[in-house]
Design brief:
The complex is a heterotrimer of chains A (about 350), B (about 375) and C (about 400).
Chain A (H helix, E strand, L loop, with lengths): L2 H29 L2 E5 L1 E11 L4 E11 L9 E5 L3 H7 L1 H9 L3 H4 L3 H33 L2 H16 L2 H12 L4 H10 L9 H28 L4 H9 L4 H29 L3 H5 L9 H9 L9 H32 L2
Antiparallel strand pairs in A: 1-4, 2-3
Helix pairs in contact in A: 1-14, 2-14, 5-9, 5-11, 6-9, 9-11, 11-14, 13-14
Chain B lengths: L9 H29 L3 H4 L4 H6 L1 H5 L3 E3 H29 L5 H34 L6 E4 L3 H9 L2 H32 L3 H15 L2 H13 L1 H9 L10 H25 L3 H9 L4 H12 L1 H17 L2 H6 L7 H10 L4 H37 L3
Antiparallel strand pairs in B: 1-2
Helix pairs in contact in B: 1-18, 5-6, 7-18, 8-12, 8-15, 9-12, 12-15, 13-14, 15-18, 17-18
Chain C lengths: L1 H17 L12 E5 L3 H11 L4 E5 L3 H10 L7 E5 L3 H7 L6 H7 L8 E4 L2 E17 H6 L8 H13 L7 E2 L6 H13 L16 H14 L11 H9 L5 E5 L3 H4 L11 E4 L11 E9 L5 H14 L2 H6 L5 E2 L11 H8 L3 E2 L4 H13 L1 H4 L5 H19 L5
The chains are: A mainly alpha (about 350), B mainly alpha (about 375), C alpha/beta (about 400).
């Protein structure tokens, strides 16, 4: 396929990605090195606000942004270099904590706290998703033909459900005296508060994520299992291979490309863990990198937002994902070169 | 298991089925539970005792309940619908629609099924039951507290049907556009061994990995002021992109592109290249080969990929909540708004009912396309 | 049967949109509003819609959208719903118009109390006030012979008594959800102690005795609270009250009506509203208001119509129909028992929330930083110092502090 035809085929897609992903990305990259802010002046203002019966008026000095002749706020943009990255990473504080060997202090610094959780979350859920997905796929494959359809249907439900709704429903089941907590309390015969300490919330988040993603893995693996070579399985049986050996030497190698595919998707998605934090209102205990970016980005009530730090934090998140993806990608490179 | 050699001992089959049953319960329980909650009065819905939530004594005390007979017939109708849709419908659609226009048959079929179900379940069935219940004595007496008032609140008083319509517009737009742009690019990438193609894929992958909130926030000021900066190009008619469904569709398609082209590329790679090469030998150029040879055989992969696009657009909250105003708002942000609003417990249950309402179409969709998803994946849409 | 009701409802809604019985004039200028989405706004915008040609966006992202949308030319929304804090960005950007001429023309029925004045110009019209105040279970306290708690020491003593008597395990409820809610609780306490937030040049000044005292009071309360307090917001506390699980809470006045809602509350008539507990200087609460602003980027005709529609939204008819939904600023409002707590707090000298640009950053820094103290990861001094450091970083980026 020559370049011109290739360009015609991928053109529309590339154009859309350029317009809506690459350009914003470049602006995010740029913003992480600049700070844009209004120029404030200090003025004395009398403000009257309602009390219950009468008004209260106060005169105070406030900072007000200067306006130009057209009544627009004058904004100044200045290059700050790596300042915003430093403000996100807080290297001095982190370094002091590390050199004192104080893990507790390090884990109260936002970025490192978020990084710790994001990595734990990603690396613990990854094997769980693969193993559960594989397990469910094998179970479905073993099931009688008549129940396969309904079981696949039920298995897909956790995957298709709107994530926000999924998180909320898990929230209701466990929060306060939610019925599953009540069930646990009754079973263990003790008072349980799952949202009162960090580790239970973390476990709950991971379980939710596995519940949500394992069906996707399962269905992909199930599809893969349909194409396992039956002859080699049978000859393995004749050679006296146990079930486990057949699984290990024939099925898993056959599924390897799919395992890598699922791992890659899962790495990307779980590194951006966000819905769980908001849905479980866990930010008092654990936060994630994506939540940190979001928190810098949402304006507070008076309209201030930390765009520069948000951009820096988004870039740092991206670098993290890129590093995690290097391993699975090397294989794709080989395949791509080998396939032609 | 066709072969004797692979037959499993009973004990293994038993444990395997027990585990499978356990997984099914885990998978379905949260969804089952919010469905139950949505039919109860607020006092019952948030009761700490599971049995109270299921049987709904407070709801029953308010005079809202259903009898054993209602339950049996209701389940019968639901089961009948499912059986009809999954067993009969594909055949009927094949029989009645023209070759190559089956998608149209599907649309008509699905619409008809939904309308028929709604009419039977909510109009005909209650009418029959109101006659039958008094006749059956104890069988016809209310035993289970259940009320549909929250659904009525959601769909009629809160105007949720408008959000539903908007969701429909956005998702349809995203699926159609995303697939048309994506299949072309996927095919191009699959058939090109150039280094450029590889790097394009890698860049797409990095785009897929981007944290979206940072990107989306930078759209807002640009979209709001678009009529000003588009004016030099488009003059008077320059649109304000903020609040327009088509703008949101474009954004969602772009965000979804990386995944779509990856999926479709690996799917096209599994269609033997000899197929279109043969067509090219017959004098077709690449586009004609694509249209004549590839298009007829690509549907399983396209349906699977389309379903993922559908899920992304349907479930999106980040883009839609920020870039659409209330008149064009889709369902998910509307529901989250309901939850975050200063709410009474009743409002919470209403929101739960809304949450169940938006899950229903998803379930319906999977019910119909389940077989296509599996076969699409099997056909190789996911070869690493 | 059911189909009939559905058809009836449909017919009625068509009939309702066809007439403007409840509105004194027929609006023919297309208008849109953008506001928060809570109950009171729903009531007000519904009343405004009766005038026709009006679309309301009750949007939870309004904080993000409002400054941008009002800065567009012409403004995407003519009418904005703001509170004392969300007024700040619009005021700063100069995208809202002074309303004095319109008030003179149409606003004869407005109370002087409703006019929000900045430098003598009316910039917004308030429609309601809100404040956190004490709600307690009169039956529980009376049974144990406890008097109405007036200070936080009283509250803690009463909680100990209730717990010891075995009536409730967690007698106190609190909106301690990490983020805005928790920040607000600290601000209440700190203002009750008479602290001020800023020194010269917007520098933070919370790391002091009053700050530590406020933190310690918050911490002392958590001993009597459900251990999941860091995730509990107003709706959750309200639910705990309704289910009879807690006996005391410092909760928003706008939540008072829910206590007596027969459909969902098990404690109807058993909850008394009283003043917010006193700190050493003032009641530990802040007074908030919600109201309207009009965009400056629109024609005078639009502004004229917008102002009239807005007045219709908060007229007597709406207030009497939704009397208990909020503490309305309107002569028709009947301050019943439900408003007693808010009124008593104001009487005792509760201050207005000190809304300003720096305060927005401070509130966020507090909301995010306090959790470390509540979970025991940091002591009070370190917590406050870290919050100040956080604030300084953000304020520098916003340009409020010069380097």
């Amino acid at each position: 396929m020559n370049f011109r035809t290739f360009a015609a085929f991928v053109g529309p897609s590339v154009f859309m990605m350029l317009l809506f992903i690459a350009f914003p990305l470049i602006s995010v990259f740029k913003q992480s090195f600049y700070v844009t802010q209004p120029i404030y002046e200090t003025v004395e203002v009398e403000t009257c606000t309602p009390g219950f019966l009468t008004q209260t008026c106060v005169t105070e000095t406030v900072s007000q942004p200067q306006l130009d002749e057209e009544g627009k706020v004058i904004m100044q943009t200045q290059y700050v270099g790596l300042e915003s990255y430093r403000n996100v990473l807080e290297p001095e504080r982190a370094w002091r904590a590390i050199s004192e060997g104080s893990w507790n202090v390090l884990s109260t610094i936002n970025f490192w706290k978020a990084l710790r959780f994001t990595l734990t979350f990603t690396l613990i859920t990854l094997p769980l998703v693969i193993v559960c997905g594989l397990g469910i796929a094998v179970l479905i494959n073993n099931a009688a033909q008549a129940i396969k359809g309904p079981v696949i249907f039920i298995s897909l439900l956790p995957f298709i459900i709107t994530p926000v709704i999924g998180v909320l429903s898990v929230n209701w089941l466990f929060r306060g005296d939610g019925i599953l907590t009540a069930l646990l309390e009754w079973w263990l015969n003790r008072d349980i508060a799952l949202f009162a300490q960090a580790w239970t919330i973390e476990v709950l988040m991971m379980l939710y994520r596995v519940w949500h993603v394992a069906p996707f893995a399962a269905i992909v693996f199930y599809a893969g299992l349909q194409t396992v070579n039956q002859d080699s399985l049978e000859s393995a049986v004749i050679d006296g291979a146990t079930r486990w050996q057949r699984m290990k030497y024939i099925v898993i190698p056959h599924l390897m490309p799919l395992i890598i595919f699922v791992s890659m998707i899962h790495l990307m998605d779980s590194y951006r863990v966000f819905e769980e934090i908001v849905g479980f209102a866990s930010q008092g205990y654990v936060i994630s990198l994506q939540w940190l970016t979001y928190d810098f980005l949402v304006p507070d009530q008076a309209g201030n937002r930390s765009i520069s730090r948000a951009s820096a934090s988004a870039m740092l998140t991206m670098i993290g994902i890129a590093i995690l993806l290097i391993f699975p990608l090397r294989r794709t490179w080989r395949d791509h070169k080998g396939g032609h | 298991m066709s072969s004797r050699a692979l037959r499993q001992p009973l004990s293994l089959r038993l444990t395997s089925n027990i585990f499978l049953a356990f997984w099914c319960i885990v998978a379905i329980f949260p969804i089952f539970w919010i469905t139950v909650m949505s039919f109860k009065s607020p006092v019952d819905a948030f009761d700490g005792n599971a049995l109270n939530v299921i049987f709904g004594p407070a709801t029953l005390a308010n005079g809202k309940g259903i009898s054993l007979l209602d339950i049996i017939l209701g389940i019968g109708v639901i089961w009948g619908t499912i059986a009809l849709v999954t067993k009969k419908m594909p055949g009927m659609i094949k029989a009645y629609s023209k070759e190559g226009q089956e998608w149209f048959g599907w649309v008509i079929g699905i619409l008809a099924a939904v309308v028929a179900f709604l009419i039977v379940f909510f109009v005909i069935l209650p009418a029959i039951l109101s006659i039958l219940n008094p006749l059956f004595g104890p069988l016809g007496r209310d035993i289970l507290g259940l009320t549909t008032e929250h659904y009525k609140t959601v769909w009629i008083d809160r105007g949720f049907s408008n959000n539903f319509k908007n969701s429909l517009i956005v998702t349809t737009g995203v699926v159609v556009l995303s697939l048309s742009v994506g299949t072309l690019a996927g095919y191009g990438l699959a058939r090109s061994g150039s280094t450029l193609a590889f790097w394009l894929l890698i860049v797409a992958l990095i785009f897929r990995a981007l944290p979206p909130s940072a990107l989306v926030a930078s759209y807002l000021p640009v979209f709001i002021s678009s009529s000003e900066w588009l004016a030099p190009i488009l003059g008077e008619n320059a649109p304000t992109l903020y609040g327009k469904p088509f703008a949101v569709i474009a954004v969602l398609v772009a965000i979804n592109q990386p995944f779509t082209i990856w999926m479709l590329r690996s799917f096209f790679q599994n269609i033997p290249a000899e197929l279109d090469e043969a067509a090219r030998v017959d004098g077709c150029n690449h586009f004609q080969a694509f249209r004549r040879v590839i298009m007829p055989v690509m549907w399983p992969g396209v349906i699977t990929t389309g379903l993922f696009s559908f899920l992304l657009a349907y479930n999106d909250i980040l883009v839609t909540s920020l870039l659409l105003d209330a008149q064009n708002q889709t369902m998910v942000p509307a529901i989250v708004g309901m939850f975050n609003r200063e709410t009474t417990t009743t409002d919470q249950v209403v929101a739960v009912a809304a949450a169940v309402s938006i899950t229903a179409p998803l379930i319906f969709l999977v019910l119909i396309f389940q077989r296509q998803i599996v076969s699409g994946l099997t056909a190789g849409a996911v070869k690493g | 049967m059911k189909l009939k009701t559905i058809l009836m409802a449909g017919a009625m809604s068509i009939a309702a949109s066809g007439t403007w019985a409840a509105c004194s004039f027929e609006n023919d200028v297309p208008l849109k509003s953008l506001s928060a989405g809570f109950e009171a706004w729903k009531a007000v915008t519904d009343a405004m819609a009766e005038c026709g040609n009006f679309n309301a966006s009750l949007d939870q992202e309004f904080r993000e959208k409002q400054p941008e949308a009002f800065a567009a030319s012409p403004s995407l929304y003519q009418i904005g719903g703001v509170s004392n804090t969300t007024l700040i960005p619009l005021l700063n950007a100069g995208t809202i118009r002074p309303l004095d001429d319109l008030v003179e023309k149409y606003g004869q029925n407005l109370l002087p109390n409703q006019l929000i004045k900045v430098d003598g110009k009316t910039m917004a019209i308030a429609m309601m006030v809100n404040a956190q105040h004490m709600m307690y279970r009169n039956d529980v306290l009376a049974d144990l012979g406890i008097a109405e708690p007036a200070t936080y020491d009283d509250v803690l003593a009463a909680a100990a008594k209730i717990k010891d008597a075995g009536v409730m395990e967690y007698p106190i409820g609190g909106t301690f959800k990490t983020g805005w809610n928790l920040g607000q609780e600290f601000i209440n306490m700190y203002m009750g102690e008479g602290g001020s937030f800023f020194g010269d040049g917007n520098m933070p000044a919370i790391n002091n005795e009053q700050g530590v005292k406020a933190l310690e009071t918050l911490k002392a309360m958590t001993d009597y609270m459900d251990p999941e307090y860091l995730v509990s917001d107003s709706t959750y506390v309200q639910q705990q009250f309704q289910q009879g699980k807690i006996a005391m809470a410092n909760l928003w006045a706008s939540r008072a009506a829910a206590m007596n809602d027969e459909a969902e509350s098990q404690v109807v008539g058993k909850v008394t509203m009283s003043a917010a507990p006193m700190g050493s200087a003032a009641p530990a609460t802040t007074i908030w208001w919600d109201g309207f602003v009009l965009a400056s980027n629109m024609s005078d005709e639009e502004a004229d119509a917008a102002f009239r529609v807005m007045l219709e939204g908060m007229d007597e008819e709406m207030v009497s129909a939704n009397n208990d939904a909020a503490v309305w600023l309107n002569p028709a409002y009947k301050a019943g028992e439900l408003a007693a707590g808010a009124a008593a707090s104001a009487q005792a000298g509760a201050k207005a929330y000190p809304a300003s640009g720096p305060m927005g950053i401070m509130h966020t820094a507090l909301g995010n930083g306090l959790a470390d103290f509540m979970t025991g990861a940091k002591d009070a001094q370190t917590t406050l110092a870290d919050i100040e450091a956080d604030y300084i970083t953000a304020a520098k980026e916003a340009g409020l502090i010069n380097n």
